[in-house]
Amino acid sequence: MISATPTPTPTPPNGPPIVTTNPAGFIASFSAILKGSLNPDGLSTTFHFEYGTTSSYGLTTAPQTHTGDTSRPVSANINSLAAHTTYHFRIVASNTAGTTFGSDRTFTTLSPTGPPVVTTNPATLIASFSATLNGSVDPHGLATSIHFQYGTTTSYGLSTAPQSHTGNTYLNVSANISSLSASTVYHFRIVATNSAGTTFGSDRTFTTLSPTGPPVVTTNPATSIASFSATLDGSVDPHGLATSVHFQYGTTTSYELTTAPQSHTGNTYLNVSANISSLSASTVYHFRIVASNSAGTRFGSDRTFTTQ
Question: Is-above-0.85 flag for pTM?
Fold first, then answer.
């Protein structure tokens, strides 16, 4: 009996890009961020946004190039807009298989001055007894005072020191808080006040760590990258126990080399770094931070850098 050779399934041809126009963000009096999503469908693809006060547009953002075959978020900052004006926009993408236009969307810029616009962002650097509260604010053209309220209930009860800002664009603001209780849920929000009014951000929560436990680590981007050397960077919260920290690095994610161990203790985040040398020029290296204490070992995520 002769068996038939199976016919291979043909690979679908690459096609025009697939795009979606998403809502604009960070809309201020004279600026905004245009957003969309793009799937290049396997071909090198150039995209831009068209925008203007009518659906004839008239203005475009600088072109950006992407490749791949999955959808990804894309954006472009625009400024020099007119206050209190409705704008139309859409994403446009082109590759060798064709050009695709996203649907039309609109947004309306803010008035030249008014109450501040705020967003409460997630807390970071959450440790046993401390954390960093984060938010964003558009002072909306007026001198604005900003602070965070925080506490174990939505009545808050505690406030950070006020910060002063002005202008008509969104600014990231943060405040470090300490003397917290371990293993406790905290509520917080941003509050901003100017001569046009007071605005409260939405409530968010975070939970402090236990008094002691495994270390908490983050692998940060490498710095001082040269042809044969670099500096590896990360952060560690020893989580209340004596902790040994080092970096693994090499040309693959198997790593092959380690830096000398460093010892740290405490309950706050510390920046750590290690200088490495004897590297090969024009080579991609992988690295990650590793920390161990009596409660366990933690590995940071993999990062890469390329020597010069």
Answer: yes
